[in-house]
């Protein structure tokens, strides 16, 4: 059974940092793509960052709004993907979800329809 569990969210002041984790199980971690999305109240869900863990790919992708501030990485020993978020701003406030897409490469940008989702972790940035 596939599971994705996010953690690491919280309340932080503008300019601060958080590291989100996405712990996965139930599928071959090294062969698949993990994508972080976020959704703020009253707004559509948007892609944040993507990492393809397969040996032939290993690509990453970032939304323009987070480039240079967020870094995605993966630890195959722990089947976990991390999202390091620096220089946080109030507009980063959202519920952050990780997802897995079994047939997607980050070289193509964000997935339109990931196969499984986590429950989300809340990030709140105060001004």
Give the SSE map.
Blueprint: E1 3-7, E2 10-13, E3 18-25, E4 33-39, E5 46-52, E6 60-62, E7 70-75, E8 80-85, E9 94-101, E10 116-117, E11 121-126
Parallel strand pairs: 2-11
Antiparallel strand pairs: 1-3, 3-8, 4-5, 4-9, 5-6, 7-8, 9-10, 9-11
Strand content: over 45%
First and last CA, distance: 40 Å
Q: Supply the number of helical segments.
A: 0
Helix content: under 10%
Mean pLDDT score: 95
Biggest sheet, open or closed, and with what strands and sense? Answer: 7 strands, mixed
User: Which value, in Å, is the CA radius of gyration?
Assistant: 14 Å
Look at the helices and sheets and give the structural class: mainly beta
Weakly predicted, low-confidence segments: none
Coarse morphology: globular
Number of beta strands: 11
Q: How do the SSEs run, as a string of H and E? A: EEEEEEEEEEE
């Amino acid at each position: 059974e596939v599971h994705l569990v996010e953690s690491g969210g919280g309340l932080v002041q503008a300019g601060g940092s958080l590291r989100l984790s996405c712990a996965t199980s139930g599928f071959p971690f090294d062969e698949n793509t993990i994508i972080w999305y976020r959704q703020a109240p009253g707004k559509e869900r948007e892609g944040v960052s993507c990492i393809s863990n397969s040996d032939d790919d290993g690509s990453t992708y970032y939304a323009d709004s987070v480039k240079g501030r967020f870094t995605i990485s993966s630890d195959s020993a722990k089947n976990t993907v991390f999202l390091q978020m620096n220089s946080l701003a109030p507009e980063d406030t959202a519920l952050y979800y990780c997802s897995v897409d079994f047939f997607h490469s980050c070289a193509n940008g964000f997935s339109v329809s990931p196969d499984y989702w986590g429950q989300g972790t809340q990030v709140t940035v105060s001004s």
